[in-house]
Amino acid sequence: MSRSDTAPRGGLTARSIQLIAGLVLFGVSLALLVRSELGLDPWDVFHQGLSVATGLSIGLCTIAAGVVVLLLWVPLRQRPGIGTVANVVLVGLSLDAVLLLIPSTGDLALRWTYLVAGIVLNGIATGAYIGAGLGPGPRDGLMVGLARGGRSIRVVRTAIEASVLVIGWLLGGTVGIGTVLYALTIGPIVHRTLPAFSRDPRRIGRRDAP
After folding, report:
1. Could you read off the pLDDT of 75-84 as tens digits, one per residue?
2. Distance (Å, rounded) from C-alpha 126 to C-alpha 171?
3. Of the candidates 155, 125, 130, which has an alpha carbon nearest to the alpha carbon of residue 141?
């Protein structure tokens, strides 16, 4: 296969638009999960716990945590891309912005609608921003960096997410049925969306989410 055959498809502008759209939609999906009040994914349980403990918005806590995680890349010799930096900023900002637009509700049916829509949109957004090929998110890069040297990525990821989940829950983050549903469904959703959005020819037509 020639070098041109393996180069990412689409110009930088198109890939950047896909990246930004994916990250903004990712923030929207997190806002829906927050408003469902039925449970968050592990990292956002942590971010919400920080928000409860500090009084800062969950979006600002998401950004702050992303900066700290990105600093941990330095000793791991991980190199961020433009998508990595954009991830740190855009997800938190869009999360806070959408929370201002979507009020809390006691309607259980609506909360379940938020939950399901949030999980599905999260999977779509993940496929979009990773598929742009402009750099992994800070938390994904941390996982890859820690897994170097023959460690299992699955074990490392489980250890990291279990740790932030417990810490976030102790700080006041929401753990519930939504946390379980997210864990069970996000992998299969991204398994479908990543090949659809990927600009890496080696992924086109494949069904192997990372």
Report:
1. 888 888 999 9
2. 27
3. 130
